[in-house]
Design brief:
single chain; alpha/beta; Rossmann fold; Arc Repressor Mutant, subunit A; 7-stranded parallel β-sheet; about 45% helix; disordered C terminus
């Protein structure tokens, strides 16, 4: 059948089954390419109507379309919607019994279905292979195609089997791939790994104009959520949390207020998850509190808000989850509640990521990419610039004008000229020779009294204490801007370090570095004194001992079925790490260790400390306030410490630093 005839049939199908008179942007281009026999890679944001782009061609092309989809809930919802629209469709996944699967195969072979959804794991089964030899397949559609890329945010090894499946077919069908979020690298991966043949690549744009983005930096997240729900009692919304514990706690908190709320996470039974999901979809619950296990394929159009209780691990995850708001095109809010603790939670989750079926040589690369994504998300939470432009810029869609429709565009700022401060930051990075990360640089510039800085020798830098009159939050904003502008760069490995970028523009006399400080955070600027953290006395070895003792505390807590802090507080473990006691008398001098607790736990902690010191002979776990580190790491003289010069980098110094940093 001629492509032109198929296109007419497609337009009629759009009206007959879906009730639409016209296509959304990008849909007609994609459908026309498919009907012309071309492979397609389509990047379409959530709510742009990507399903119609393969469902309409499937109806007018001869044979059956196989849709490979990663989630059971997505398949079930799609098939239910298609059948209600009068389109015969089926699915095969682990939710069906063997007899039901055989029945689906039989009906599909008889031509009862135009569209069949399958899980990627099903492609390797003998029964499925036999089935595909008996039918005519017009198209293979890969939904959530970013799952095929190891650089995608949701890589699934089972997706790598798709190209083998296509290669085994008697006749190669049209191959179409769809995803809502993909960087340039992921797009290239999808095209290469699927072996798309001269594909039509369509990017409809990532912007969702009806969504309002905002970041609220707050430690009182519970209060914020309670107040928000109180002000929006009739709105449907999703609240995402990083952990199951947070989901349960917030659910109980909202339930106690009488809110119509449900919850969803992988620790619940399948029945409870399904019931709660249905309660939300059918508006019996207006709000659902969930981990990121919830939402893929949930086509609920009237979600008016998505609140992220914790910062997600990547911009891909965030935009996909936030994009579940406002699928009907109506104004909706996407709010991210941020606190620095979110970074620690996500680092812990990434360090405990499951790398089953991932080749060893790829694991380090994936960990680096994960670390880089986390940096991007932290940058989003800290930026003073337009939030929408930050998101779009990450996905390669550059805009110069602010959107005037996000929290940052509507927030009042004070603009600080931090040009001279920027030069001191550059000087400090130059002194580190690109060896240290953000916390060391901040501590050095602020003149922090930390054992770790003494151990590294940064207390002897000319820049030590150079910006002690600035707040840490101001310097974080400044360094973030220097990274964004390319004056500095940050490595993407687990222990990322900051290195020199292109500093030449800063040497031009008229160059200014202007940093926007939110008015609601101005009170931070007035704080000149900083309380000394309890961990500041610990060296690198001290931190390592502290982590070892925390693990022992966790083991004991599990044995005794009690919270870890009941055994020893963090403050006690820090003091224990600093003192490294090796006998009863020394242990009883540790803050928080009395006779009773020594009797119960003392010997086990002394043995753990002894084992650590045996493995790390000659290690120093703490340094007193007035104590310098002996040897080559010792601090410079007080006279040297006081020397401050405005901007002492010469062009050749910058070149030397870059080479050293790359070693």
């Amino acid at each position: 059948m001629a492509a032109s005839v198929l296109k007419v049939d497609a337009k009629q199908t759009l009206k007959k089954y879906f009730g639409y008179d016209s296509y959304k942007p990008g849909q007609e281009e994609i459908i026309s390419a498919i009907l012309s026999g071309k492979d397609i890679l389509a990047i379409m944001p959530t709510g742009a109507g990507k399903s119609i782009c393969y469902q309409v061609p499937a109806m007018v092309m001869p044979g059956i379309t196989i849709v490979i989809s990663p989630l059971i809930s997505l398949m079930q919802d799609q098939v239910k919607a298609l059948n209600q629209a009068g389109i015969h469709a089926g699915y095969i996944n682990s939710s069906l019994k063997d007899a039901q699967i055989s029945m689906v195969y039989a009906k599909a072979a008889e031509g009862a279905y135009k569209i069949l959804y399958v899980a990627p794991e099903r492609l390797e089964s003998r029964e499925f292979a036999d089935f595909t030899e008996r039918i005519s397949i017009s198209m293979v559609t890969v939904d959530e195609a970013h799952c095929i890329s190891q650089w995608g945010q949701d890589f699934r090894p089972s997706y790598l089997k798709i190209v083998d499946f296509i290669g085994r077919l008697r006749e190669r069908p049209v191959v179409s791939a769809f995803t809502a979020t993909a960087t340039e690298e992921v797009k290239t991966d999808i095209s290469c790994v699927l072996k798309l043949q001269d594909p039509e690549i369509v990017v409809t744009g990532f912007d969702r104009e009806n969504l309002y983005f905002d970041v609220e930096a707050t430690k009182k997240k519970d209060s914020y959520v309670l107040e928000y729900i109180k002000k929006h009692p009739d709105d449907s919304g999703i609240i995402y949390c990083a952990t199951r514990k947070n989901v349960d706690t917030l659910y109980e908190l909202l339930s106690d207020t009488g809110a119509a709320v449900s919850r969803y996470h992988a620790g619940m039974s399948n029945e409870d998850r399904k019931e709660n999901q249905d309660d939300f979809i059918y508006d019996r619950s207006s709000v659902i509190v969930a981990t990121n296990a919830f939402g893929m394929g949930i086509d609920k159009s009237n979600v008016r808000f998505v609140i992220h209780y914790n910062m997600p691990q990547s911009m891909e995850n965030y935009y996909q989850e936030a994009g579940r708001a406002g699928r009907d095109g109506e104004p909706s809010q996407c709010i991210l509640l941020y606190s620095p603790q979110d970074i620690m939670i996500n680092k812990f989750l990434l360090e405990n990521k499951d790398f089953t079926d991932i080749p060893d040589e790829d694991i380090e690369l994936i960990m680096q990419r994960d670390a880089r994504r986390l940096q991007v998300m932290e940058g989003y939470c800290r930026t003073a610039g337009c939030l929408r432009n930050y998101i779009l810029g990450y996905f390669g869609e550059k805009r110069s004008e602010p959107c005037d429709s996000c929290g940052n565009c509507h927030r009042e700022y004070t603009e600080l000229d931090m040009t001279e401060d920027a030069k001191q930051v550059i000087n400090c990075v130059w002194e580190t020779k690109g060896r240290y990360g953000l916390n060391v640089i901040l501590g050095t510039l602020l003149g922090a009294n930390r054992a770790r800085l003494k151990e590294l020798g940064t207390t002897g830098y000319k820049t030590y204490g150079a910006l002690k009159n600035r707040s840490e939050s101001e310097l974080r904003l400044l360094i973030g801007q220097l990274l964004l502008n390319g004056y500095l760069c940050q490595t993407a490995d687990k222990y990322s370090v900051i290195r020199m970028g292109n500093i030449e523009p800063l040497k031009v006399q008229d160059t200014r570095i202007l940093v926007r400080i939110p008015r609601d955070r101005e009170t931070e600027r007035q704080a000149k004194t900083r309380s000394r953290k309890s961990t500041d006395s610990l060296t690198k070895a001290g931190y390592e001992l502290f982590e070892a003792l925390r693990q022992l505390r966790l083991t004991i807590a599990r044995e005794e079925g009690m919270p870890p802090y009941i055994i020893f507080s963090d403050k006690t473990l820090i003091d224990m790490s600093a003192r490294a006691p090796q006998d009863r008398e020394a242990m009883l001098n540790v803050s928080g260790v009395g006779e009773a607790k020594y009797k119960k736990y003392g010997d086990r902690f002394i043995r753990a400390i002894a084992a650590f010191l045996d493995d790390n002979p000659d290690s120093v776990t703490s340094i007193d306030d007035n104590e310098d580190v002996p040897g080559e790491k010792a601090a410079l003289s007080k006279k040297q410490k006081k020397q401050k010069t405005p901007f002492y980098l010469n062009p050749e110094d910058g070149d030397k630093q870059e080479r050293e940093g790359e070693q």
